[in-house]
Amino acid sequence: MTFLFTLYLFLLGLACGSFFNVVGLRVPLGQSLVAPPSSCPSCGQRLAARDLVPVLSYALSRGRCRHCAAPVSALYPAGELAAGLLFVWAYLRFGLTAQGAIGALLASLAVIVTVSDIRYMRIPNKVLLAFAPVLLALRILYPGEHPILYYLLGALAGGGLLLAVALISRGGMGLGDVKLLAVIGLVLGWPGTLLALMIGSLAGTIGGSIQLRADKRSGDGSARQPIPFGPYLALGALIAYGCGDALIDGYLNLFT
C-alpha cells in the first residue's frame, strides 16, 4: 500500500511539476497560465497531448521538438522530475501530516522559483504572495513545538539579513531573494532560516565556481554571467526543513 501511494505521489508530482514549469516561465512575463496553449518556442507549433507527458515526452523525442527538431530546454523535465521526487520525499519524511503538506508546498515553491530564476533571473512577487499566506496559515494552525512568534522571527531574520546584503552590495543581491528568504522563514523559524542561508550560500559558492570555470574553458570567462541565488536558497530551505534540527544539534555538539 505504501509503495502504491508513493508511486501515486510521484506521478502527481510529475504532473504538478509540469504546471510549475508553466508558472515559473509565464508569471514573470505577465502571461496567462491558461492561454495561449503550450507551443514550441522555436516554431510556434501547438503541442499535442503526446508532447505534454511529463519527462516521458522529452525522453521519447530525445529532447527535440517533433515538428522542427529544435532542442527543448532540459529545464522542463528537470522541473517535473524534481517535483515528483520532492513530493515523495515530503511523504516519506513526514508522512500524511501537516508537516508533510508544508514540506510539499515548500517543494512546490522551490521548483517554481528555480525555474523562474534560472530562466529570467527573477523571482516573481505574485508567486511569493500566493504561497506566503497559505504557509503562514498552516503555521498558525500547526505550529509544531514552537509558538508562531518563532516563525515570524524567522521571516524577519531571513528577510532582514538579505536586505542588508542587498543594500550593501548595491544590486549584487536581488530583492526577490530577500522576499524568498522571508517566506522561507515562515516555514523554518529563525534558526532554520539561518541554516538555510548558510547551506544556500555554500552551495551557491560551489555552483558559482563551477560555472566560472566552465565559462573560462568555453572562452566566455571575460563576460561573467550573473548567478541566480534563488535555486540555492530553495535547496538550503529543503535541507533545513528535512534535517535542520539534526544538523544544528550535531554542530552544537562539536563544542560540548
Describe the protein's architecture and organization.
- It contains eight helices and no strands.
- With about 260 residues, the protein is mainly α.
- The chain folds into two domains: about 1-95, no CATH class; about 130-255, no CATH class.
- The longest helix has about 45 residues, at about 175-215.
- The chain starts with a helix and ends with a helix.
Count of alpha and pi helical runs: 8
Low-confidence stretches: none
The average pLDDT is 91
**Major sheet: size, sense and barrel closure?**
none
Q: Calculate Rg over CA atoms.
A: 19 Å
Oligomer: single chain
Helicity range of the residues? 55-70%
Q: How many beta-strand segments? A: 0
SS strand fraction: under 5%
- Counting helices, strands and paired strands, the structural category is mainly alpha
Question: For the terminal residues, how far apart are their CA atoms?
Answer: 44 Å
Shape: globular
